[in-house]
């Protein structure tokens, strides 16, 4: 009894992103090209130096860890050096810790190499990256490097040229849904399909965010529906934003502005409002040339907001521009 209650407690405590982190490369969802390349590496055992790059929450860290586990199995502890942005990775660490690890003698199965994992490598200073160049070459017969980063351009060119680049992209709605269903079933989460849709909408291709939002909604409300999801995620409700866009398209400028004012007064940041507007427009059923025009104007407004001018006036100005685009489209 005691053990069951403590286990349910600990289950409750584990974030679902960790609980459902795939342990094997095959279990990683999406990015089929990247994953199949990694699977080949896991099978053959000869790992090249690699850089995984892509947006957050798409499975880079997960892939590297799974790959290292598959390559080294029981030797993982001695054979892998794992450093991420929370570790000091200045030039001294490259000179001492990484070099020492590369020189260390470890008995591994034939054809296997020690692995240095540098997660979030885009936060390494370029000095530290420079110091890595020669180390990567000198010890290449015994040690291989796996780097993960969000923007590959922050990795200096010489390192890029020593590595195979594997790109990850945002996951599709379908892929996220598939994974959510697995978790929903395992955790017995009560839901309605619209609730999962809302989670997918707010996650925008980021699996980590999708799982976190699912867990947050579940622990906050015990029921996953649209309302609860948007309350938890604190994003403007897409239906509300959709109404604004529809009013613009129907020529009801005042109503559109009123809807916008309501959102603004609720305290949503202009950035949240504009990104939701963009996503609504992208999926809105309207004439293509008009949609392109709308997206262009939204892009310009986004730029101004990013420059710091996030006033209600800017957002209203956007609605005015959209209304004018509609007028010109109708006139022509
Ligand atoms: N492709 C995927 N398949 C299954 N689960 C995934 C996938 N991508 C992410 N996840 C889930 O999201 C969590 C975070 O993923 P991961 O740490 O691999 O992201 P990341 O790509 O390294 O992101 P970051 O750039 O922020 O470090 C994992 O624990 C896992 O539960
Ligand atoms: Mg990561």
From TrEMBL:
Signal peptide: none
Domain AAA+ ATPase: 46-177
InterPro entries, per database record: AAA+_ATPase, ATPase_AAA_core, DNA_pol3_clamp-load_cplx_C, DNA_Rep/Repair_Clamp_Loader, P-loop_NTPase, Rep_factorC_C, RFC_lid
Record GO cellular component, one term: DNA replication factor C complex
Superkingdom: Eukaryota
GO biological process: DNA repair; DNA-templated DNA replication
One Pfam family cited in the UniProt record for this chain: AAA
MF (Gene Ontology): ATP binding; ATP hydrolysis activity; DNA binding; DNA clamp loader activity
Cellular compartment(s): Nucleus
Gene3D superfamilies, sorted: 1.10.8.60, 1.20.272.10, P-loop containing nucleotide triphosphate hydrolases
Assigned keywords, A-Z: ATP-binding, DNA replication, Nucleotide-binding, Nucleus
Keyword set includes NADP: no
Key word Nucleus present: yes
Assembly, per entry: Heterotetramer of subunits RFC2, RFC3, RFC4 and RFC5 that can form a complex with RFC1.
PANTHER family listed in its UniProt record: REPLICATION FACTOR C / DNA POLYMERASE III GAMMA-TAU SUBUNIT, REPLICATION FACTOR C SUBUNIT 2
Family in the record: Belongs to the activator 1 small subunits family.
Function, as annotated: May be involved in DNA replication and thus regulate cell proliferation.
Name of the protein in question: AAA+ ATPase domain-containing protein
Species in which this protein is naturally found: Cannabis sativa
Gene that this polypeptide is encoded by: LOC115709200
């Amino acid at each position: 009894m005691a053990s069951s209650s403590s286990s349910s407690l600990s289950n409750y405590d584990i974030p679902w992103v960790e609980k459902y982190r795939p342990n094997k490369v095959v279990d990683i969802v999406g990015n089929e090209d990247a994953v199949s390349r990694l699977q080949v590496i896991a099978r053959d055992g000869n790992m090249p130096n690699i850089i995984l790059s892509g947006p957050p929450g798409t499975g880079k860290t997960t892939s590297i860890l799974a790959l290292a586990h598959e390559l080294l199995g029981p030797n993982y502890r001695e054979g892998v050096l794992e450093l991420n942005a929370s570790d000091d990775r200045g030039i001294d660490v490259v000179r001492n810790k990484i070099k020492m690890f590369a020189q260390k003698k470890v008995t591994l199965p034939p054809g296997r190499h020690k692995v240095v994992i540098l997660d979030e490598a885009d936060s390494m200073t370029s000095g530290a990256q420079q110091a890595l160049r020669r180390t990567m070459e000198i010890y290449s017969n015994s040690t291989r490097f796996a780097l993960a980063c969000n923007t590959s351009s922050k990795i200096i060119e010489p390192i890029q040229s020593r590595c195979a680049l594997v790109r990850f992209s945002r996951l599709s709605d379908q892929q996220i849904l598939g994974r959510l269903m697995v978790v929903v079933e395992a955790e017995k989460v009560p839901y309605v399909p619209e609730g999962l849709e809302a989670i997918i909408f707010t996650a925008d291709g980021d699996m980590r965010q999708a799982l976190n939002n699912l867990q947050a909604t579940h622990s906050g409300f015990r029921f996953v529906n649209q309302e609860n999801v948007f309350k938890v995620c604190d994003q403007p409700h897409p239906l509300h934003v959709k109404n604004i866009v529809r009013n613009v398209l129907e020529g009801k400028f005042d109503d559109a502005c009123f809807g916008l004012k309501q959102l603004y007064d609720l305290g949503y940041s202009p950035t949240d409002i504009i990104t939701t507007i963009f996503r609504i427009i992208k999926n809105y059923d309207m004439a293509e040339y008009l949609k392109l025009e709308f997206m262009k104007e939204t892009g310009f407004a986004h730029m101004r907001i990013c420059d710091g001018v996030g006033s209600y006036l800017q957002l209203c100005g956007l609605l005015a521009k959209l209304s004018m685009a509609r007028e010109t489209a109708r006139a022509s």
